[in-house]
Amino acid sequence: MSVFVNGNAIFNDARKGHYAVGAFNTNNLEWTRAILQGAQETNTPVLIQVSMGAAKYMGDYKLVKTLVEEEMRVMNITVPVVMHLDHGNYEAAKECIEAGYSSVMFDGHDLPFDENLEKTKEIVKLAHAKGISVEAEVGSIGGEEDGIVGAGELASVEEAKAIAATGCDYLACGIGNIHGPYPENWTGLNFDRLKEIADAIDTPLVLHGGSGIPQEQIEKAISLGVSKVNINTENQLAFAAATRKYIEEGGDQNGKGYDPRKLLNPGYNAIVDTVKEIIGWLGTPSVK
Ligand SMILES: [Zn+2]
């Protein structure tokens, strides 16, 4: 039996309860443990996701799933954990359905719309047969992630309705959000479009590029129907800053401070703190 839960109930409850659940990208062993620790300490459900590029970096999809699973065992993790593929293409989504993920994103936003719709339908059918939840995407998220550059066009309400009708469990829609740091001339989230989409469909909505969006905009997006907020850059910046500080203060030259378990520890703790802080922002309630 899988140790993972799918995202369906978690995000439906979140949408009804007007809060969100964080989806944190993992990159390696430290990231995996830090995300799990942050969720366990706040006693809240969590979604660990891996991008195609990060899975390749770590080995493959199965290795990532096994790592998360085994860390849950040795860390005695008791909160619900969703194992999710972030921004998968058609092949990657199928591979993760086979590998035992409990949730997959099929991102067909760069395909012609009819093809995105058809392939989303297929993935939903394959995934639901195994109790796996599916995230789909309409419009696009601006910025760059793993070499995929999105211009950031707004999702149309009609397209969102058509994709939601495939039975996908949650839906990412472009509303002016961007992957990576936000440029200074960024005009903010398009709340009018978000509201139009949220009024038209009951599907929980996903906000990608959550790092760097001001807290009050995230809270407003959640109040309008966003239930899943993706966080990647925030943890990367926190890890880099803490590691830089440790080295600049000579930590690595102090005794055996160069030992990787010591060298990576400040960054690790920074991720735990960031995860806990973000879970607080999202208003994720504790599990009973
Ligand atoms: Zn994304």
Automatic annotation (TrEMBL):
Pathway(s) this gene product operates in, as recorded in its UniProt entry: Carbohydrate degradation
UniProt binding sites for dihydroxyacetone phosphate: 180, 209-211, 230-233
InterPro entries the UniProt entry points to: Aldolase_TIM (IPR013785), Class_II_FBP_aldolase (IPR050246), FBA_II (IPR000771), Fruc_bis_ald_class-2 (IPR011289)
Record flagged with keyword Zinc: yes
Binding site for Zn(2+) 2: 107, 137
GO MF: fructose-bisphosphate aldolase activity; zinc ion binding
PANTHER family: D-TAGATOSE-1,6-BISPHOSPHATE ALDOLASE (PTHR30304), D-TAGATOSE-1,6-BISPHOSPHATE ALDOLASE SUBUNIT GATY-RELATED (PTHR30304:SF0)
Protein name: Fructose-bisphosphate aldolase
